[in-house]
Design goal:
Strand order of the largest sheet: 3-2-1-4-11-10-5-6-9-7-8
Number of strands: 11
Helix content: 40-55%
Distance between the termini: 40 Å
Shape: globular
Number of helices: 11
Order of helices and strands: EHEHEHEHEEHEHEEHHHEEHH
Structural class: alpha/beta
CATH class of the largest domain: Alpha Beta
Largest sheet: 11 strands, mixed
CATH architecture of the largest domain: 3-Layer(aba) Sandwich
Length: 332
């Protein structure tokens, strides 16, 4: 059975939403959760009927959002360090944390190590589209400065993720640029374009709108650009949601229309809600690490756990190693 280590102390709201999310996940799926954190704070929030179903690993230290990510390697008593160590030692298959994202990625990369052949791990985000399935975009923040060969590997890893996690056959892969023409882009994207030409599924350059229109399954970019896209998208979604609420409150006609369109608004909110996804996997490392939003509610934690279970069950890592090895042999 899949074992998931959960950083109970990570997140902006303390252990309560994390524990509640863990319980919600247990109600729907069979897995073994391991909560890592201060036992004195965890136990009072854990219903007695779940105490024999959830293990607790004591961790006295908590890395706050204000701490430097590099300090995480020295903080061996912290909840995220101990959660990562459970995966490293084979006591858990994956880790979920809504805590310091930089600390989680640093520890996952350096303590767990990269998969064979992987130069740099990447953080994956799932973006809503006008079709029924989401687009996969990477890297969204694990690497600020990337080289062309890194982005080529992101394309390979993103393709494997789309195939295994979402059962997308022959996923289309696009390179994020400032235009669809082959000549568009900066020095980095132009170099990546040349390396990806001929790779299965590569459709060339794509624009920002292609992230959301469903025309491309996997969008590749460097972590600096990807993180800006992610944060801007979150901001737009929040603004649109707020504007809709304001307009409805101000207009009696809009209120009537909103009541008639209630189902549509519910579906729209679901599409835009980060809690529906749960977190971003750090892809390219040994094991599995899901980086969740600091403001994660129980639903987000539940879905992050589901993501971790799915990642482990589908064997994405083995697929990535095989695909990178095949690409390496082809280049020889």
């Amino acid at each position: 059975m899949v074992k998931i280590a959960i950083d109970a102390m990570g997140g902006d709201f303390g252990p309560e939403p994390i524990i509640e999310g863990c319980i919600q996940a247990l109600k729907q799926k069979l897995f073994i959760p391991i909560l890592v954190g201060k036992k004195s704070e965890i136990l009072p929030l854990l219903p007695k009927r779940y105490r024999d179903k959830i293990s607790i690993v004591e961790a006295d230290d908590v890395i706050s959002m204000h701490d430097a990510a590099t300090d995480a390697l020295k903080r061996t008593e912290s909840s995220i360090y101990k959660a990562i160590e459970l995966v490293k030692n084979g006591e858990a298959h994956g880790v979920v944390s809504a805590g310091h994202s930089g600390a989680t990625m640093t520890l996952a990369t350096l303590r767990l190590g990269r998969l064979k052949g992987v130069l740099r791990p990447a953080l994956v985000a799932l973006m809503p589209t006008k079709t029924s399935r989401k687009s996969v975009i990477l890297d969204v923040g694990a690497n600020v400065d990337s080289k062309p060969e890194h982005l080529v590997q992101f394309a390979v890893m993103g393709g494997c993720y789309a195939e295994d996690m979402f059962k997308v056959q022959n996923p289309s892969i696009g390179l994020l640029a400032n235009g669809e023409e082959d000549s568009k882009g900066n020095e980095l994207t132009k170099a990546v374009f040349k390396l990806l030409v001929g790779y299965k599924g590569f459709k060339g350059n794509v624009e920002g709108s292609d992230i959301f229109n469903g025309s491309c399954d996997v969008i590749v970019c460097d972590g600096f650009v990807g993180n800006l896209v992610l944060k801007a998208s979150e901001g737009v979604a929040s603004t649109i949601s707020g504007l809709i609420k304001d307009y409805i409150r101000k207009s009696p006609i809009a209120i009537t229309g909103a009541l008639l369109m209630r189902k549509v608004f519910v579906l729209l909110k679901k599409q835009m809600d980060y809690a529906e996804i749960g977190g971003a996997p750090l892809i390219g490392i040994q094991g599995c690490a899901i980086v969740s939003h600091g403001k994660s509610n129980p639903k987000a934690i539940k879905n992050a756990i589901f993501q971790a279970i799915g990642y482990v069950d589908t064997g994405v890592n083995e697929h990535i190693v095989e695909r990178l090895e095949a690409l390496k042999n082809k280049e020889k």
